[in-house]
Design brief:
The structure holds 2 protein chains of 2 kinds. Chain A is mostly helical. The two termini of chain A are 28 Å apart. Chain B has 17 helices and 20 strands. In chain B, strand 11 and strand 12 form a beta hairpin. Classes of the chains: A mainly alpha, B alpha/beta. The interface between A and B is medium-sized, with 24 and 30 residues.
C-alpha cells in the first residue's frame, strides 16, 4: 500500500492522465460501446498513433533540454519523399522491390533523420540560435526541399512492397507500425532511465550554465538530443509513407502542434528539466483514443477534435494547479 | 527615555502548526540604527513581514509612532511611515529611473494621463534627498546592484518614511558600495529616520548599528547596545554553539608545486599571473571585484580559457580549454554564484551531488549504476551533514549554507587534487561558514589537496590561508604569508 502511495506521490501527473483516460473509456463504454469497443477499432488506433507518437518522443527529448523541435514534420516528409524515390531507384526496371533492400532503406531513413537532427542541433548548440527559431527554420528549409523535389505533387508511383509490409498486422493481430513505435519507445526509455543520459538531460534542461560548470559536454549533449529527435521523426515519416501509400511535401502538417500538445500534456515542462516518458506515452495514446472516440459520433463533426484536445490540455494543467502540485510547476 | 518609535511586544506567529515566532519583542527609537541578526529561518523575515503588514500576527501587541496597529495592510504600513527595502529591491528593470521613482506617486494620485514633466520633477526631488547622482532616463535594468538599491531607497523616502527596514542590503554589494550605503544610512539618521538593518555579517553590525537584536529559532536571544558585543559573543548568540577557530597552518607541503602558472593572461581581465600552489596548502587570492580574481578562477577551470601564458600541473605543461580538461587534471571549481553557476536549484539534492562524477557511476556495460549512485549520495549527505530528511528533495529547499555544502560535495566526490573556491561562504550563515572552513582546513591537512580560496572576505582569507596573493587591475601586486600581513595592509594594496 505504501509503495503505491509513494508511486502516486512521485507521479501525480501520470495518475491524473490515467484518470482522464479511464473516464473517457467509461464514457465511450456507456455511450457507444459496440462501435468503440471492437477489436478492429483498437487495431486501427494502434496502427495510426505510431507516426505522430514517434515524433512526440523526439519533441519530448528536446523539450526536456528546455528546447523544442518544430522540424519533425519537415524531417518526416523529406524522409518519406526520399524513400519513395529511393524505392523506385532500387526496384529498377522490374518495378519490384526485393526484401533484401529493406535494411538499406531503414539505414537511409536513420541517416536522413540523424543528419537533419544534427543540423538543428548545431544551430542550437554552436550557433546559439533559440531552438524555437532554429527548428522552425530547418522545418521551412526541409519543406522547401520537398517542394522542389516533388513540384508540390504527391508521389504515389513507387514500389509498395515495403510500405505494404509496414502496414500489415503480424498474424493478423499486431500492427507492424506499433512494433516500430514500441521498439523506439523502449530505446528512448532505456536511454533516459538506464543510462546517465537521462539525468544529464534533465539537469542540462534546468540550467545549461550550471551543467557547463559541472563539467558536462553541453554542446555534444544538445546535438545528440536533436539527432535522436531527427531519427524519431524520420521513422515517423516512414510510417506516414506506409499509411498514405504516397508522399507529399505537406502531409501531416497538423502534427507540429499536436506533438507539442502531447508532450506538454504528458507532463514535460516547456521550460525544460522535468518530464517522464511514461506520461508522454500515455498522452499519445489518450489523444488517439479521444480522436477515435469522437469519430464514433456521426453528428459531431471532426472539427470538434481540436476543441476537445485543447480542452483536455487545459484540464490537465488546471488539475495540476488545483491539486497544488508544486513540483510540476517548479 | 524617549518614546519608542516601534514597540513590538510578545509577537507570536505560526505557520501550519510550526511556531515561527515565539513571544519576541523589539523596540526601535526614533532616528536609531538598529541591527536585527540571526541565521536563516530564525524568524527575522517573518517579523519584518508582520511589521510591514504582509502577515497578520497571532498574538502580541504592536505600536508604531504612538499608535496601536491592529489588522493592517502593507498600504496602511506605508502611509504610517514604514518602508521595507527587500533584497530584490522590487524595482522595474524595464522602466527608466524616473518612471520607477514616479510610478507609486502617479498611481496613488490615480492619474490616467502621464506627464513626463511632472514625473521628472518628482524623480529629481527623490534623488536629491540622498544626493544620488544618476541619469534619470537610464533603464533600471542597466544599473549596477548598488544603483538599483539607491533607486529603491530614494523611492522609499518619498512617502515620509519614519522607519526604513533594509533586508540584507549588503549581500550583493562590493566593499566600496557598502561604504556608500553606510554614508547614506547615517544621513538618513540625521534626518530622524530610524533604520532596521537586517544582516548576519558581524563587521557590518559593529560598524553601523547602535543597538542590536539577535533571534534564534524564532526566539529573542539578546538585545542590547552594540558596544557590549564582540566577535565571540556574536557568533555564540547567532548559533548557540562555540567555535574554536584555528588559524590555518600548512603541514606536509609537497616539495614541488602541484599547480603552477607562468605569465598566465586573459586579455582584458588579467595579465602575467605567475603563481605556485603546493599540495597541502591553502592559497588565498584577494582583490576588488574587477581585479580579475573571478576570471582567473574561470581560466584555471577552462570556462574562459587563458589567452596567453602556461599552466603546469606537477611540473608538466598542460592545456586547459574546457572544464573537462580541468577535471581530467583533477581540478575542481566551486563557482562564485551558487544560484546560477553552482546548483541546479529545482533538481534533487542527490542529482546535484553526483552530476560531476556521473561518468564514474556506470557499470562496465555503460548502464547507470543506481546502487552506486545511492551509496555516493548517502555518503555525502552524511559527510557534509546536510540538513535534509530526503536527498530526493529539491536543492532549493535547503538554506544557503547547506546548498554550498552540496556544491562542495559535488567536487569532493570527484576526488580533486586542486580545488578552487570562489567566494566559498558568500550568503552562507555563520554556523555553516565555520563548518565549511573546518572542512577545507582538514582537506588540506589530511589529504594533501591544494586549495585556492578566492575571496574578498579578508578575515576569511587571513584565518584559512597560509599565503595570500593580492590582485589589482589584473596583476599580482603583492604576495605574503598570512602571518606577516594584516587586513589594513591588504586593503592598501587592493585599492
Amino acid at each position: 500500500m505504501t509503495e503505491v502511495k509513494k508511486h502516486y506521490r512521485s507521479n501525480p501527473h501520470l495518475y491524473r492522465l490515467l484518470a482522464i483516460t479511464v473516464l473517457w473509456m467509461l464514457f465511450m463504454a456507456v455511450t457507444r460501446f459496440d462501435k468503440f469497443y471492437t477489436f478492429k477499432n483498437f487495431q486501427t488506433i494502434a496502427a495510426q498513433f505510431p507516426e505522430f507518437g514517434l515524433m512526440s518522443l523526439g519533441v519530448m527529448l528536446c523539450m526536456m533540454t528546455g528546447g523544442i523541435d518544430l522540424s519533425c514534420v519537415g524531417v518526416a516528409n523529406l524522409t518519406s519523399i526520399l524513400c519513395a524515390l529511393l524505392m523506385t531507384k532500387l526496384a529498377g526496371e522490374s518495378g519490384v522491390l526485393s526484401p533484401a533492400t529493406f535494411p538499406i532503406i531503414v539505414v537511409v531513413v536513420l541517416v536522413i533523420g540523424a543528419l537533419c537532427g544534427a543540423f538543428s542541433g548545431l544551430l542550437v548548440a554552436k550557433v546559439r540560435i533559440p531552438p524555437i527559431l532554429a527548428t522552425l527554420g530547418v522545418n521551412e528549409l526541409l519543406t522547401g526541399i520537398c517542394m522542389v523535389l516533388t513540384g508540390g505533387a504527391a508521389l504515389s508511383a513507387f514500389p509498395k512492397e515495403m510500405t505494404t509490409m509496414l502496414a500489415a498486422n503480424i498474424g493478423g493481430v499486431l500492427p507492424v507500425r506499433l512494433l516500430v513505435f514500441v521498439a523506439m519507445a523502449v530505446l528512448v526509455w532505456f536511454m533516459l532511465c538506464k543510462t546517465t543520459y537521462g539525468t544529464k538531460l534533465l539537469l542540462l534542461g534546468t540550467s545549461e550554465k550550471v551543467a557547463r560548470y559541472s563539467g558536462m559536454k553541453t554542446e555534444r549533449m544538445l546535438i545528440r538530443t536533436y539527432m535522436t529527435s531527427g531519427i524519431c521523426s524520420a521513422l515517423g515519416g516512414l510510417m506516414m509513407l506506409s499509411t498514405y501509400a504516397s508522399a507529399r511535401a505537406d502531409y501531416g502538417s497538423q502534427y507540429t502542434l499536436q506533438t507539442i500538445l502531447i508532450v506538454v500534456l504528458g507532463g514535460v515542462s516547456p521550460n525544460g528539466g522535468k518530464g517522464k516518458i511514461s506520461g508522454v506515452i500515455l498522452a499519445i495514446v489518450l489523444l488517439k483514443l479521444l480522436e477515435s472516440g469522437i469519430n464514433r459520433f456521426q453528428n459531431i463533426s471532426s472539427y470538434y477534435i481540436s476543441l476537445i484536445w485543447g480542452g483536455v490540455l487545459i484540464l490537465a494543467m488546471v488539475m495540476d494547479y488545483v491539486t497544488g502540485d508544486k513540483r510540476s510547476r517548479a | 527615555m524617549a518614546q519608542a518609535l516601534l514597540k513590538a511586544t510578545d509577537i507570536q506567529k505560526s505557520f501550519a502548526g510550526v511556531q515561527a515566532l515565539k513571544n519576541v519583542s523589539l523596540e526601535i527609537m526614533p532616528g536609531e540604527i538598529h541591527c536585527l541578526a540571526g541565521e536563516n529561518g530564525c524568524g527575522k523575515s517573518t517579523l519584518i513581514k508582520i511589521i510591514s503588514g504582509v502577515y497578520q500576527r497571532d498574538g502580541g501587541t504592536l505600536e508604531f509612532d504612538g499608535k496601536t496597529m491592529d489588522k493592517f495592510t502593507p498600504i496602511d504600513a506605508i502611509t504610517n511611515g514604514i518602508q521595507v527595502i527587500y533584497q530584490d529591491f522590487s524595482v522595474f528593470p524595464n522602466l527608466t529611473v524616473m518612471e520607477n521613482l514616479a510610478f507609486n506617486t502617479e498611481l496613488a494620485a490615480k492619474r490616467r494621463i502621464v506627464s513626463k514633466k511632472r514625473m521628472r520633477q518628482i524623480a529629481e526631488e527623490a534623488v536629491a534627498k540622498i544626493n544620488f547622482q544618476v541619469d534619470l532616463d537610464a533603464l533600471v535594468g542597466t544599473l549596477s546592484v548598488a544603483e538599483k538599491q539607491m533607486v529603491a531607497i530614494s523611492r522609499a523616502l518619498m512617502f515620509n518614511a519614519k522607519l526604513i527596514i533594509m533586508d540584507e542590503p549588503t549581500t550583493a554589494l562590493t566593499k566600496k558600495e557598502v561604504q556608500a550605503l553606510f554614508d547614506i544610512i547615517l544621513k538618513l539618521k540625521e534626518q530622524g529616520i530610524a533604520i532596521l538593518f537586517v544582516s548576519h555579517k558581524l563587521d557590518e553590525v559593529f560598524e553601523i548599528s547602535e543597538r542590536f537584536t539577535i533571534f534564534r529559532s524564532g526566539e529573542l536571544v539578546v538585545t542590547g547596545s552594540t558596544k557590549d558585543l564582540d566577535d565571540k559573543k556574536f557568533t555564540f548568540y547567532m548559533t548557540g554553539r562555540e567555535f574554536n577557530d584555528k588559524t590555518f597552518v600548512a603541514e606536509n607541503l609537497t616539495e614541488q608545486p602541484i599547480l603552477e602558472t607562468r605569465n598566465l593572461t586573459l586579455d582584458g581581465h588579467f595579465q602575467d599571473i605567475s603563481l605556485k600552489l603546493y599540495g597541502g596548502e591553502i592559497l588565498g587570492i584577494t582583490g576588488l571585484l574587477d581585479s580579475g580574481r573571478t576570471e582567473l578562477a574561470l581560466s584555471l577551470f577552462g570556462i574562459r580559457p587563458a589567452t596567453g601564458g602556461a599552466i603546469l600541473r606537477n611540473g608538466q605543461e598542460i592545456s586547459i580549454k574546457t572544464p573537462q580538461d580541468a577535471m581530467k587534471q583533477k581540478i575542481g571549481l566551486v563557482p562564485e554564484d551558487r544560484l546560477s553557476e553552482g546548483l541546479f536549484l529545482p533538481q534533487s539534492i542527490a542529482d546535484n551531488i553526483i552530476i560531476a562524477e556521473i561518468e564514474q557511476l556506470k557499470t562496465p556495460m555503460g548502464i547507470f549504476d543506481r546502487k552506486k549512485r545511492q551509496e555516493e549520495v548517502d555518503h555525502w549527505v552524511k559527510e557534509m551533514a546536510l540538513a535534509t530528511p530526503d536527498a530526493n528533495n529539491a536543492s532549493s529547499t535547503l538554506s544557503g549554507g547547506n546548498q554550498q555544502r552540496i556544491v562542495l560535495a559535488k567536487w569532493l566526490a570527484c576526488h580533486p587534487e586542486v580545488l578552487i573556491l570562489s567566494g566559498p561562504t558568500v550568503g552562507v550563515d555563520i554556523g555553516s561558514k565555520h563548518d565549511i572552513h573546518a572542512i577545507l582546513q582538514q582537506l588540506a591537512r589530511k589529504t594533501g589537496m591544494g586549495i585556492i580560496i578566492i575571496s574578498d572576505d579578508l578575515p576569511e582569507v587571513l584565518e584559512n590561508c597560509s599565503r595570500v596573493l593580492i590582485l589589482k587591475d589584473g596583476r599580482i601586486v603583492h604576495e605574503a604569508p598570512t602571518q606577516e600581513i594584516d587586513e589594513k595592509t591588504i586593503v592598501s594594496y587592493m585599492m
